[in-house]
Amino acid sequence: MAAPAMQQPSYLLANLKMDSTTKPFLQCCQELVKVIDDYPAKELHLIFPWLVESVFGSLDGVIVGWNLGFLQACSNRYNIVMDFLNPSGPMMKLVYKLQAEEYKYEIPVSFLPGPVKVSIQEGVLPDCPLLNNKLHFPLSGLQTLSLALNPFEYYMFMFASSLITPKNYSLGQHVSSLDSAYFVLVDTYLKYFLPTEGSVPPSPFTYKRSSVSPPSPRAPSVPFAGYGIHSTSLLKRHISHQPSVTADPAAQEIWRSEALLQVFVEMWLHHYSLEIYQKLQSPQVKEPFTPTEEHVLVVRLLVKHLHAFSCSLKPEQVSSSAHSHTSPLEELKRVVVHRFVQQKLYVFLQHCFGHWPLDASFRVVAWVSYIQPWRYTGEKTNPQTDQNKGVPEKWLNKCVCSASFKSLFVQENLLMYTKLFQGFLNRVVRTDLVNVKNALMVFRVAKVFAQPNLSEMIQKGEQLFLEPEHVLHHRQHRCFLSPGHGDSFLSARQPVVTDRVFRVKSHVYGLEGQDCQYKQMFGTELRGTVLKLIQIIDQARQTAKKISDQSAEVAANNSFMSWFGMGSPDLNYTFNGGEVDDTGACVKKTHEFLERSLDYLCQIFRLNAGQLSQLMATLGSGQDDGNSKQLPDCVQGENGLILTDLGRMQFGGHMDALCSRPDFLGQLGRHYLASPEAAADGRRRSPETRLTAEGYRRPRLSLRMLASYRTLLMLLLLYLFGALFSFGPMSSTLLILTGGFLYGLLSRPVRR
């Protein structure tokens, strides 16, 4: 490759494109590292969009890129890619080199998430901090609008978009896992730019201008206009009047952290606005976006890290009196979940609950991870003692979800617990719980909600929400900071109401709307669904036990049946619709998961042993009534059910009808089901004995002949005779049955 001074930028880009198709991957990366080190930003500016697109793929999916989602650690390229894209690697060095000169790169608005794109095309600036002061207005009109992003924002935008962009993969390429290069890079970027310990490492380059433009600060405080209702002047600002303000100098310290967070949240979560979510409740509305399993797994990783990031807030920074002394990074930890994630994640999860397939893959949805932030405090605890401890009181004192006041996480996220739990119930009652994976999913959710003090916290939140309105009249002139509206969180701090009732009501109405009909998690209406689920779980538990017993019985009889060629080493044939692993120990695990799920549900909804026994008895009597319609008449004996005389004759009507037919089938029935000897002997008996023998003259199936030594000896000789002619047990059995049928067919009495 020629020296930088001897080569024009156009030739540099052309040569790099040619090298990418002709040279080995390692050599291409090595030359790219040299180019990044040797060339000035003016020339690197022209190759940057091509290089980013070559790595992450194009926004339209035509160019696949390096396939980071399918690149595993066992690949030869893996270490090369990870070193090149590392936060301290050559690619990020290129980003910082261009960032120092403040170049801009355009992204068409058509590739933004649906709600954002629609708002911009309608001439309204959406509630998306990433867009502030970044819209580029072409002369051709609003339909060709684009975003002008700085190098860091552009790089992260393309990185985040590659997860959700449909691509034309080749056959056999749809394999991904949690150890893919993309998943590891997401985790690496989150830990680097949102560190739980220390601060964000500074950029290796000094910016040419005095500051980097972070997202612009919000407008002055917005007057409160009711729960969940925000001023139209904030929400519906025309895009031609974008604010032009001076960035807060304190924000320079963490502008990369905030930019990365905003890009990830917008691209991965903001695919459904509140209006679209409400319309999706109607079956006539087609869903605009369906996340993949890889997408949901990355969202779960994001949620877990943000909880860890938020819970790493220093204890001395929790009190409101210390707010003025906190660093920008600590202030971001205080508000990151509530301000940036809550609203968009709630609507995203609602969509998953309503549209995800009814199978065990639902376990990857980030719901359970979000409602347990105390799991990510970084404190090492004993799993056994931690299970009994429940929600740590120390964590509850640290849970800060707003910039100006402390709050309990559960109360500020009440709908995440109550509304989504109701959605989970609606899914579970339609799921096959005999499947061990589905049973495990129910067990995990029940275990989470059965933590000692969690149900009480949820009930307290519901009580606060249902408190009468008249107690809040004196607070109507206060200001409220909506979680859905956050530009730069470091902008002017606003007074925030510290009343829990007001806070819970604002949370519910802000997400569900002013006219929402709240259904209590511990109310009578939902209790009926819970009791139905308990019945389903108990029925599935009994079915799993029967399958387990049947598996053991089949295994015991397998050696005997194999002698006839009918045995099978695979016991899966005994199950209906079960998965391959639902056998043996897995079925026993299913029974255990369901058993413990019942215990947890009883703890959550305070069902005592008497209520549970009555519920199970009701279910058992219903099953007995159903079975009694299928079984013949019988009585309960010491060893089980015993047929009565009526029960022995209850199917006799079908045999009588068969033997009464005058055709060929009737002749066969009279031969095999009636006994001519008993009928003739009955004519020589007295009237009393004739009545006793009346039952023996009725059509019946008799197997007495198989108890004859003569018959057994004859069968043994026939099997030995068949073995001489190389007939197996199965073939000999079929020949014997065929011969017996032909004998009966030829020797049947002919009716004249």
Structure characterization notes:
53% of the residues lie in helices and 3% in strands. With 752 residues, it is mostly helical. The strands form three sheets. The chain has a three-stranded antiparallel sheet. Strands 2-5 form a two-stranded antiparallel sheet. A hairpin with a 2-residue loop joins strand 6 and strand 7 (640-643). Helix 12 (293-311) packs antiparallel against helix 13 (328-355). The chain is elongated, with a radius of gyration of 37 Å. 29% of the residues are buried.
Describe the protein's topology.
Layout: H1 9-22, H2 25-38, H3 41-56, H4 78-85, H5 90-99, E1 105-108, H6 114-121, E2 124-125, E3 135-136, E4 146-149, H7 151-164, H8 181-193, H9 232-235, E5 237-238, H10 255-269, H11 274-279, H12 293-311, H13 328-355, H14 367-370, H15 383-389, H16 393-398, H17 409-412, H18 414-428, H19 436-449, H20 454-465, H21 500-512, H22 524-562, H23 585-604, H24 609-628, E6 634-637, E7 640-643, H25 645-649, H26 652-659, H27 664-673, H28 676-683, H29 687-692, H30 694-697, H31 709-724, H32 729-746
Helix pairs in contact: 1-3, 2-5, 3-5, 7-10, 8-12, 10-13, 12-13, 13-18, 18-22, 19-23, 20-21, 22-23, 31-32
